Amino acid sequence: MSNNLIDSTTFRILGELEENDSLRYVQLREKVGVADATLTNRLNALLDLDYVEVEAFYNKKGRNYFAYKLSQSGKSFVSQFKIPQLLRTLTV
Predict the structure, then answer these.
(1) DSSP annotation string for 30-92
(2) Would you place residue 85 in the very low, low, confident or very high pLDDT band (cuts 50, 70, 90)?
(3) What does pTM read for this prediction?
(4) Is domain 3-82 given the CATH code 3.40.50.300 in the classification?
(5) C-alpha to C-alpha distance for 66 and 44, rounded to whole angstroms
(6) DSSP state, residue 62
(7) In whole angstroms, what is the distance from residue 18 CA to residue 75 CA?
(8) Cβ–Cβ under 8 Å, residues 70 and 52
(9) Whole-angstrom distance, CA of residue 62 vs CA of residue 73
(10) Residue whose C-alpha is closest to residue 16's, from 72, 80, 67, 84
């Protein structure tokens, strides 16, 4: 991940996924509070690093949607760097 992607936005994404098991894109965008381009950029980088996985779901109307969740590598990263504790210090 390039240095410009290691910031509080990336940490908030990882923190939200750690707290919520999996989130749809819209839910994640609302929780993190960033523009679509920023979220897409960060998610693509996290997917490339294998920190995040995508699950496809289908509703009763046959419409598909996607949810993002931490991969095992992502869970290890979050645990190793104590992301939830770091986020609490950033928001104080």
Answers:
(1) HHHT--HHHHHHHHHHHHHTTSEEEEEEE-TTS-EEEEEEE-HHHHHHHHHTTHHHHHHHHH-
(2) low
(3) 0.83
(4) no
(5) 14
(6) S
(7) 7
(8) yes
(9) 32
(10) 84
Domain residue spans of the chain:
3-82
Q: What is the pLDDT of residues 18-69, one digit of tens each?
A: 999 899 999 999 999 999 999 999 999 999 999 999 999 888 888 888 999 9
The residues, any chain, with a CB within 8 Å of residue 80's CB and separated by 6 or more, are: none
Half-sphere exposure of 58 (CA within 13 A, CB side): 3
Q: State the amino acid at position 15 in one-letter form.
A: G
Percent of the chain with pLDDT over 70: 85
14/84 Cα distance (integer angstroms): 9
Per DSSP bridges, beta strands 52-58 and 22-24 are unpaired
